[in-house]
Design brief:
alpha/beta, Rossmann fold, 2 domains, 4-stranded mixed beta sheet, 8 helices, globular
């Protein structure tokens, strides 16, 4: 059984440190970047390691409800160690979107999506929020990057915008809790480089039965192979069963069910896009299962007391690449996992039969396969 990618050449770029050095960090208030910003003025956090060969990608991290970027420095520092620019962005996050929607629009399955879009671009969409264009994520991000480029011109922050336009294709959008929903909406509505969701979802309780909000089922601009989730199985705020349903709505489970990272025996967490943990949080926040995957005070450390236990998981979330088409075998069947497109099958590599109704993963009993069977993916 063989899988053939339509992309015949795979380029591999190895990036390594050019010298040992100390990452350069900056903490600065949004009002410094734009005097019209007067609220949600806790400091942005930026970090880059000039001693590491750069990847020309920005890791944008959005904190959870009521939190600030200062509480999430380990993950951006780890990204900088890998050669990324990283920026923790402060934005309007004082109230949980799901709570507001349940209180003010309980029967509207589109309220959460509209609320998130309002926070992102500042256009009025829901009556229970008042986020304008100045306070929007878009404006805050652009002004933060312009400030960083002007203040640290040798660090290369200017490559992530052009004039007044953000270069979303060069951004890895990430977030925790409420921030993960903002990152996901950015990846739904823009072509970003990647999306990483830490313990987040939008759950509509007004449905029968309750289910994810409508926006989570929409076709994303950022291809699904670039989406990843990491959650705690004992999260005290978000039900893990519901998070699994949310992951399915986002289609990240096309690459398999969740994989528990601390007990994974497969190479590279089985190439899964939905990872979980059941580890105890750090003693400083021993009951914060919700924060355990990424909040500094809750993230467990290795024996040295300074290295996060989840460092290899974070590396995987930032660096793992999924092949356009992969085949996994069991004694009784094969599973064909593929990007959106038309799957084609051949017995002799000359005549190809489209499988237009096939959805990923396509599970085929071994008994139904001919002696030789090849698959390829034709994308638009």
């Amino acid at each position: 059984m063989r899988a053939i990618s339509h992309k015949s050449i795979l380029w591999v770029l190895l990036l390594a440190s050019t010298a040992s050095g100390v990452p350069q960090e900056a903490l600065f208030r949004p009002s410094v970047t734009d005097p019209e910003i007067t609220q949600f003025n806790d400091r942005h956090y930026a970090v880059v390691d000039p001693a590491v060969t750069g990847r020309a990608r920005l890791v944008l991290f959005l904190p959870g409800t009521g939190a600030t970027p200062f509480l999430y420095r380990e993950f951006p520092r780890n990204a900088a160690r890998l050669g990324f620019h990283a920026l923790g962005l402060m934005y309007p996050n004082d109230n949980a979107i799901n709570v507001l929607c349940e209180q003010f629009a309980p029967s509207d399955p589109d309220s959460a999506g509209n609320a998130r879009l309002e926070v992102i671009d500042g256009s009025d969409r829901v009556g229970f929020l008042a986020v304008n264009s100045i306070d929007s994520i878009q404006n805050r991000l652009l002004k933060a990057l312009q400030y960083l480029q002007a203040t640290y011109p040798s660090q290369g922050w200017g490559q992530y915008y052009s004039g007044s336009s953000l270069r979303w294709d060069k951004l890895i959008v990430c977030g925790h809790s409420q921030g993960s929903g903002m990152a996901a909406m950015l990846a739904k509505t823009r072509v970003t480089d990647r999306c990483i969701i830490f313990t987040g979802m939008d759950w509509w309780t007004g449905g029968a039965p309750p289910r994810p909000y409508n926006w989570m089922f929409t076709l994303p601009q950022t291809p699904v192979d670039r989406w990843y989730c990491f959650a705690h199985e004992r999260d005290q705020f978000l039900d893990f069963t519901e998070m699994q349903a949310a992951a399915a709505a986002l289609d990240v489970t096309r690459y398999g069910a969740y994989e528990r990272v601390e007990s994974s025996t497969s190479d590279g967490y089985g190439s899964r896009h939905f990872l979980s943990t059941n580890l105890e949080p750090a003693p400083a926040q021993s009951s914060s299962y919700h924060g355990c995957p990424v909040v500094d005070a809750a993230t467990p450390m290795q024996a040295d007391g300074v290295t996060p236990v989840f460092e290899p998981v974070w590396d995987y979330l930032l660096l793992h690449d999924t092949q356009p088409i992969t085949i996994k075998c069991t004694p009784s069947s094969i599973s064909i996992i593929f990007f959106p497109g038309t799957l084609e099958q051949s017995d002799d590599l000359s005549r190809w039969t489209p499988q237009p109704a096939a959805t990923s993963p396509l599970v085929v009993p071994r008994s139904a396969l001919p002696f030789r069977s090849f698959y390829r993916l034709r994308t638009p």
